[in-house]
Request: fold
Amino acid sequence: MKHSVLIVGYGTMGIVHTKKLSAMPDVTVKGAVDIDPRALDEVRAAGMVAYESLEEGLADPEIDLVVISTPNEAHKPIALAALAAGKNVMTEKPAMLDSAELEEVIEAAKASGKVFTVHQNRRWDEDYLVMKKLYDEQTMGPVTYIESRIDGSRGIPGDWRRDPERGGGMVLDWGVHLVDRLLLMVPSPVTRVFARYSYAKGLPVEDGFRIQMSYANGVEALAVCTTNNFIGLPKFHMEAVHGTAQIEDWQMNGKIVRLFDKENDADATPILAGQGMTKTMAPRLIDYAERAKVQDNVEILSIPRIETGMDEFYDNLIASIEGREEPVVQVDSVLRCLRVLEAARQSHETGEAIAFESAD
Reply:
């Protein structure tokens, strides 16, 4: 079966999707729509059709997949128009500006019988997949706390991402990734959401956030994004009953520190710490080669590696259009994430924790 694709928004991600889809057998990116004449010149230079309008592109009977990579506020009207025209739809994140918009598009997709999915590409990041593996396999025992963060110091780009009416701000930029992944990692209801946003740069949109989620199974998780932090903290930090794992950066530097003799974790010797003594906070200063002290019976393990890439997403996109697979990014999971983010905004505005899903 051959497939013909229309790209709506031929910017950075539109070009990425064009390259990925064009490399697939039986898939042709026929053309693109963009409001920028320079982008249309690039489309023509690449040998594709530069449609003069969305309506012209949707009227092309060869097109069966529409890929939306426009600014956030345009996702909903384009998706609804494409579904009404009988096209399958994949949109960039955030799927929509809010859960109500997404519910409307989901219903339209069900009525049309066409595929609608979202490019949640950060689900394929290696750091996330490794931490999910550690969680699933209980490498350090039952997990109690997870922190996922992205730190930067360059502020928000000076374009539509600073405009609240266009879905600007870091919550719809990185929150839809960090929270989405934590929801997938921990298969338990989120019972409580508490959040604080940052407006350090004086913009009308948040330039950072801290979103805390409490799960019914006892796990606590924190999603953090900063854009004015010149000393970034680890991208992932996970605490469990018998150890801790940490991934420092995009290069996957990090380590796992784990008890290797859980039954004989002896009491510590008090140490001088600052102007006082502590036994509770005494570090595990061991000779890792000799493991000489029983009370310091921990081992250091390397962070495992996972080979990953986005080919699975694009392969699944075509397979779902052909009815051979279900979309790997289920829109119900995207909807749940948007609802958590809405609870987070309510929490920031009220200063209170927001009750969310029932533990039953």
